[in-house]
Amino acid sequence: MPASPLLLTIAATALTLALQAQAQAQAQNQAQNQDQDRGMARIAAQPAVKQALAYIEKNEPTTTANTLAINAIPAPTFAEGARAADYLARMKAAGLRDVHLDDAGNVLGTWRGSGKGPTIVLAAHLDTVYPAGTDLTVREKDGRLYAPGIADNARSLAAMLTIVNAMRDAGIATEGDVLVCANVGEEGLGDLKGVKHLFNQRKDIKAFVGLEPALGADGDPVTHIGTGSRRFKVTLRGPGGHSYEGFGLPSAVHAAGRAIARIDEVRVPAEPKVTFNVGVVQGGQSVNSIAAEASLLIDIRSADAPLLAKVEQQIKAAIQQGVDDTNQRWNSKAITAEIKLIGDRPAGQMAKDSTIVKLALAAATAQGRPAALDSAHSTDANLPMSLGIPAITMSGGGSSGGYHSEKNEWWSPKNAHTGPQNVMLTILGLAGVQGVAPPAIP
Hints:
Layout: H1 5-45, H2 47-58, H3 60-71, H4 81-93, E1 97-101, E2 107-111, E3 119-125, E4 139-141, E5 144-146, H5 150-170, E6 178-183, H6 193-201, E7 205-212, E8 225-226, E9 228-237, E10 241-242, H7 252-264, E11 274-283, E12 289-290, E13 293-302, H8 305-329, E14 336-345, E15 348-349, H9 355-365, H10 382-386, E16 391-395, E17 399-401, E18 410-412, H11 418-431
Parallel strand pairs: 3-6, 3-7, 7-16
Antiparallel strand pairs: 1-2, 2-6, 4-5, 5-18, 8-15, 9-13, 9-14, 10-12, 11-13, 17-18
Helix pairs in contact: 1-9, 1-11, 2-5, 2-11, 3-5, 5-11, 7-8, 9-11
């Protein structure tokens, strides 16, 4: 039956209104982008800011030297104390106010504004994935500096100091305060310990900019999507016994193997991306003992929170199926599994048209450089994103690769000054510059 003229008219009107609304939204977004670019250009052209930008470029050799000095101090997760003490002294020398260690071990210092703007956090994590005793000797090859932790995150810590020194040298006056934070517990089982404590204690933070190496991309891209993760320790237990005399008793190690095989059969979509990994397997007592206990460490990641939760349940079901398989094989009920949450990094995301993302992109544009967004990553910014607080992760400068690989991690100083320059302009846009631009964040 053909549609009536009235229905056709209503449908056509609805489509027209929808297209008009879409066009209006696009025009509004374009106008906002232009305003953002003009505002950032105004900040970048201000004499004191130009002086600070020049300072960062001119003093890149000092920033590189600080990168090497900071990286020479071991800082495994949960053992960042020596590096924290060194960085505290560096913060004081940079002229920050109220420099101190908080109860979590974070090093904090404040750049004072006029009091008429928001509190903005500029952060870089102190810890590395490498255990105590790791050889931190620097090797140079083909213009690259190789050393564990040099990119992730010694460079970012050095860049943060340079930004503060540049602002002080140029006499820049901000409206808002900048809370500079060298935080603990970003890597591995640190589970964002430092920023979780910070945001639990401070309720006045209005925006967050974290510094990391430029992960998997050229230039100085902006990360606006936080990959969430859930981490578990699975402990499988059984009766144990002698491998010959007790043969027929179920083994916790065998159950671990069956559980891993079941986990490996879980199917996940390519988009939205979700991953899982059994990273550590331990258990058993001796070659001739039926294992009474075995354990697995499991990591599950996605930027899609509902999908992350769904795959978590699939992984847990796979573990239980491995237990059931083992008990059935040996006609037993002796094998059990305890699943304990040991890490919880919330997923988060900033819209591409959010103020903080637009500011960071405008910072590059104002200097005639490409403005780029990075793919999703798991960083300290995950936490404020999940709380609804504007947050991004930016590059500490230079190019790098081989992360989390003791022999392969490298950093290159080529054009390394551009990262800190972008970060400083973004911070100034967020906090506001007295007499030049109001804070972009209320």
